[in-house]
Amino acid sequence: AAAEFSSIHVIQTAGVAARIGAAQVKNSAAKIGKPCVVHDWPAIPTDDAKAEYDALYNVGSDLILQGANRATLLVFVGTGEPGEMALAVILAMLPFRGIQLAYVTPAEDYENPLQTLRSPSGVFEYTATQPERMGRVSLAAIFGPLAPRTFKEPLSTWAPLRPERHPEEQPAPFKIGGLDLPMVTFEGDYYKGVDRLAALLVGHYGSEIYPVVSVGETGDALGYGDDLLGALAELDCPGFYFPHASGETCKSPEAYGKVELLKAIGAAKQSNKKVVVIAVGGGVNGNATGMIAAMTGSVFVEVPTTLMHYNDATTSAKKAFSRSVAKSPEVLR
């Protein structure tokens, strides 16, 4: 019941019907004594992934600025256009590791919210049955003109890359929640290690992968990212190289939501490639690039290059951007 939430935040899309719906939600909130804030969702061209990305983070930041918290109910009043539900669900997953979502739509056909949802551009996607989401599903209810219906889907099987024992590798068993997360330290020759990693990725995920190698300034200068991308290209898996600024001050959506990166991921998806995002070195690199992978439904592989990165950023499993909101930093995860 709405009375169990601390506040209600409404996202209204363009159009008279959506605004009327948002006003009705706000009136209902007033009747039960709950604070209610209405946010505008911008009109976005169908194929503009960058505009989708900016809208997700701008509105997500506004939610925090306007007082949303973990106990907030988010109501997305939509138009029923294809791909809209995906954006609503991804938006709800950003603040505070997810807040509960009610989606209001005039659509006259059912859309299964537990199957893969893709944004209008096709770049961003969300699959509720992915085991790495550990059953966290923000979308709680859908309201519209259709008769009630319940959706059920089994969770997919967790199938990470589990390398067979190699004489120059040391496994480090690790779990997040109930999922094992294989971690391996390679102790042999550097170039042999790069070739070994490339071969493991292609062997596990197939030859139709599209690698996106993300690397910060230090790793870029040392050639780590170039070496790995080159090794993958030699296996007929060319990809995209994404060098970027390093450091905590650069852990922001603006630093990673680059047009060229989103276009490369979108083009790979249109070609039915499996996008594999590989963060080579750097704690912030893994934190932020992991967010891009999660939002685009991509495989994510982290390649720590120092013990600090291995023991801190990787094992923390935190994938997030930081936002400076008022005088305190908040996190979009």
UniProtKB/TrEMBL annotation:
<dbReference type="InterPro" id="IPR050071">
    <property type="entry name" value="Dehydroquinate_synthase"/>
</dbReference>
<protein>
    <submittedName>
        <fullName>KanC protein</fullName>
    </submittedName>
</protein>
<dbReference type="GO" id="GO:0009073">
    <property type="term" value="P:aromatic amino acid family biosynthetic process"/>
</dbReference>
<dbReference type="GO" id="GO:0008652">
    <property type="term" value="P:amino acid biosynthetic process"/>
</dbReference>
<keyword id="KW-0057">Aromatic amino acid biosynthesis</keyword>
<dbReference type="InterPro" id="IPR030960">
    <property type="entry name" value="DHQS/DOIS_N"/>
</dbReference>
<feature type="domain" description="3-dehydroquinate synthase N-terminal">
    <location>
        <begin position="246"/>
        <end position="325"/>
    </location>
</feature>
<keyword id="KW-0520">NAD</keyword>
<dbReference type="GO" id="GO:0003856">
    <property type="term" value="F:3-dehydroquinate synthase activity"/>
</dbReference>
<dbReference type="Pfam" id="PF01761">
    <property type="entry name" value="DHQ_synthase"/>
</dbReference>
<keyword id="KW-0028">Amino-acid biosynthesis</keyword>
<keyword id="KW-0456">Lyase</keyword>
